[in-house]
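Field notebook, page 354. I keep forgetting to write these up properly, so this time I am using the form the group agreed on. The chain and the ligand, iron/sulfur cluster, are recorded exactly as supplied. Prediction of the bound pose follows.
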Amino acid sequence: MPETITEIREIPAIKTDSEILHFITTEDPHEAEGLFAAARKVRSEHYRNEVYFRGLVEFTNYCKNDCYYCGLRRSNAGVGRYRLSLDEILRSCQIGDTLGFKTFVLQGGEDPYFPDDRVVEILRAIRGAYPDHAITLSIGERPRESYEAFFKAGANRYLLRHESACEEHYAMMHPASMSLAARKGCLYTLNSIGYQVGAGFMVGTPFQKPEHLLEDLRFLRDLQPHMIGIGPFIPQADTPFRNYPAGALEQTLRMVALARLLLPKALIPATTALGTISPVGRERGLMAGANVVMPNLSPKEVRKLYALYDNKICTGDEAAECRYCMEGRIRNFGFVPNMGRGDAAGWTASGLSS
Ligand code: SAH
Ligand code: SF4
């Protein structure tokens, strides 16, 4: 390994790569709890016990890519495809606004039906109706010009998980048409434009080794993203990875905690995938250092179709049910909802004017 991650000082025993690897792999519950406690402490220094709410609109499940792990991959003929119209997207945002959300996250597959001008039209419409809300995009890889156009049209943030920071491992999860270099390039581009950027990865993907997870942490340290999405891999029955086991809850939680210790100010969601592998997965994510939840605002009729993985939770609920269910859950664990925009601590707008 070329260098050592030295930024993690909160726990004296986590300074070197081998110490980090130890925490990536330890099965000792006492050690893990020490890690989680340290992560909670660091989180509370920047964000107290508040949890930010983001309203998620999954607006298309068409995708031109063929990631081996994902149920939306183009080769999956078993999923009914849908796209939301501009009106349906705006209606979802309106419901979200009524419920108090100040951030909308527009996520979808890489869908050629939405070229830049369509995305710009959507962004302008949302921005026009909600001048003070944050708009987060998560629609995959595009050229710099596209990202710039989206930024100018009102997008503030962009989620693009790097998936694996190791070339070899990345190539085992994606067809040759996709590359880690391109993915990383997009992330650095987004950063330079002035977006608040989210990277991240799945835990427990096929062929993943502890060293890959260390490499993921290294990459995060280098990129310094504002947001970090970490969730367990969960097999989807119609994908090439259907027979691989899901990522482990405990290891996912340890990765959340390590990410928190490494990037203390990051906004880290307790992901839906965590909630899918355990009934209290999201709550435990918060107890391991996460500080964001993303209740779903998509119309109930399409929820089941956004099937990244099997048994996804919250597919039968209305937006309001998700919003209040999450509030109850986090309060039970001593957290308080924050419905504000929730920009990353210390973040000030820069880059292109919007
Ligand atoms: N198309 C966009 C956004 C939608 S996919 C993109 O790929 O960036 C959003 C995330 O879902 C992906 O980044 C991936 O990490 C996650 N995901 C996909 N398939 C999954 C699976 N089987 N288990 C867990 N997470 C999965
Ligand atoms: Fe498409 Fe994203 Fe799924 Fe890959 S992970 S197939 S890019 S929706």
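OBSERVATIONS:
- Strands lie at 50-53, 55-60, 103-108, 134-138, 157-159, 196-203, 227-232, 292-293, 336-338.
- The chain has one domain: 24-340.
FOLLOW-UP: compare against the apo run.
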